[in-house]
Amino acid sequence: MIHILLVEDQALVRQGLKMMIEQDEQLQVIAEAEHGLEALQKMEKHMIDLVIMDIRMPVMNGLEATRKIKEQWPNVKILILTTFNDDEYAVQALKDGANGFLLKTAEQQKLIQAIYSCMRGGMAIHEDVAAKMLPRLLEKSKQAPTTNIPLTPRELAITKLVGEGKTNKEIAAVLHLSVGTVKNHITQILQKLDLRDRTQLAIYAVKHDITS
Amino acid sequence: MIHILLVEDQALVRQGLKMMIEQDEQLQVIAEAEHGLEALQKMEKHMIDLVIMDIRMPVMNGLEATRKIKEQWPNVKILILTTFNDDEYAVQALKDGANGFLLKTAEQQKLIQAIYSCMRGGMAIHEDVAAKMLPRLLEKSKQAPTTNIPLTPRELAITKLVGEGKTNKEIAAVLHLSVGTVKNHITQILQKLDLRDRTQLAIYAVKHDITS
DNA sequence: GAAAAACTGTGACTTGAGTCATTTTCGTAA
DNA sequence: TTACGAAAATGACTCAAGTCACAGTTTTTC
Fold it and tell me: pTM of the prediction?
């Protein structure tokens, strides 16, 4: 038997969900809340396995509630209820520890499926939500096309070490060079990349993922 | 009429795909290739709208081919053919510009759907593939839970500017402080975070996404 | 085989960065 | 009310970093 907490401010939607969920005899809604704060209170009173959480709510929204619940009860699964327009929230929700997404327009069959897949440790994400989220996630991890970095292999190696926060002395030791040579290379690198000092170079290295 | 290039080394799979695709009268496979290199050659000879690309192939794999095709023909759509075990490649493929993923086990209805959604500019990603990829993507953009960064607001502001590569003088100007004060704060910050110099601090700032 | 680019090194010089001691002000929590 | 941490500042000191000029060696490229 899976014990579920329903968090959703609109009573009608909540009722509908409850009925759909309890069509499956292994699933039971043993608590309901109208906003995040109430959800936290219910969590303390009941043994909850899974929370179904709306994002837009008064008092405390779903993101904050998700974060706080995951802090105190890391093993509880959380499914986010979402609409097509919530995609910027969705990414944040995932970072906060959500285990999946339900479109409000989903039919009950998908709903039940999502609950079980999420309880099994998987991640339940509706196809359309994923399609919207992925490009957003990629933007951040992309901006480094590794193209046209006009550095020689030696310069790259030094850039990498600068990006790890090493001093010239340490770099010299690792590469078996003199400190003076390292300095010369760095002068060269800064000129090529139009940077001012090793700090800007380190930032460059991290952002362009020069870590090989 | 949508012109399609099929890239897949196994002739049987290729034949099957072709038949499934051409069930739809708007879709036509006008070229086929057994590996990435051949695909590039075919691209030059035909006007292609969409490429369906396997990942594991001899001579030149699907990732490299995707990258090269997107470089020369940025408007061509590319759908990656994948299995459940390819998820580490999948992320890379997306970064290289792929427009979607097809599971090799998908039925023809899903296949056709994916092609159209991809041509409309959307991203076609099978639910199960997305579920596997998202956690992987999140790991990279996550590691900064913004928690326990024991810095005061002032220190945070300075850390942020260091992370932008600013000098103490510039930071002092922005925050209306003396250079000495900035130095003092930085000494304090370095001690708190157990770092050695502003370069390591800048790296810390970038990695923890302190950019507010 | 010659030219170009990459790699290595030295020494001298300038300056930004970081540490330390010490002081003052301000708000807030015990 | 007191005590404390955050914030701001000054001055003096040390040193790593960066620039510059010059030079030798090796590797790549045409």
Answer: 0.63
